[in-house]
């Protein structure tokens, strides 16, 4: 518990200090241009969203297990949810390739699904490499979300630990990158609450890590609902 409190305190201290600093500048500098003020406000909002995400993750984990996590399923436009998640994370689109079927509609909890994608993106941003690829596809009766990177990956002896509470593996960035270690645990909790699962493997696409999240497809048909017929997967780039 002490380690958890120390970790979360460290995680929140930097964005909180940033927000307070921005507010002080806005209050004290009456010569600031509108453009400069808008830039500072945007920065403060991004940091506030980041802190809110940490708090939401902690609330989710405080439920103890996935059986207590309420899932509210709805037929969801998966490509739109992925796009919303990308927009909420400060990740350079030059370094991110997204492959998702634009026709895919699946019954998931849209807020929880978006949270999974956000946490995958955040994890890749912190620990991955400049070259990352998010692949979302329907395979048989499952929706598979896979985040690939070209980084160093996770040693085999730590690959199961990274999904458990507040474990961050044996990563060389641990000493320089702050983090509460809850992101992957939240992903696992949400996936299991949907009846799904998570897995780690080496990326066959980029050679680094691949964090995979699998959701069972729940719909009134035998497979995913296609809005305009059963077309093959297309690439939606975040170029």
Keywords:
239 residues; alpha+beta; Helix Hairpins; 5-stranded mixed sheet; 3-stranded antiparallel sheet; 8 strands; globular; disordered C terminus
Describe the fold and architecture.
This protein has 239 residues and is α+β, with helices and mostly antiparallel strands. The protein has two domains: 2-62, Signal transduction histidine kinase, dimerisation/phosphotransfer (DHp) domain (Helix Hairpins, Orthogonal Bundle), CATH 1.10.287; 72-226, Heat Shock Protein 90 (2-Layer Sandwich), CATH 3.30.565. The chain has five helices and eight strands, in the order H-H-E-H-E-E-H-E-E-H-E-E-E. The chain has helices at 2-28, 34-61, 78-87, 110-127, 183-193, and strands at 74-77, 96-100, 104-108, 132-139, 142-149, 197-202, 209-216, 225-226. A five-stranded mixed sheet has the order 2-4-5-7-6, with helices on one face. The termini are far apart.
How would you summarize the topology of this molecule?
Layout: H1 2-28, H2 34-61, E1 74-77, H3 78-87, E2 96-100, E3 104-108, H4 110-127, E4 132-139, E5 142-149, H5 183-193, E6 197-202, E7 209-216, E8 225-226
Parallel strand pairs: 2-4
Antiparallel strand pairs: 1-3, 3-8, 4-5, 5-7, 6-7
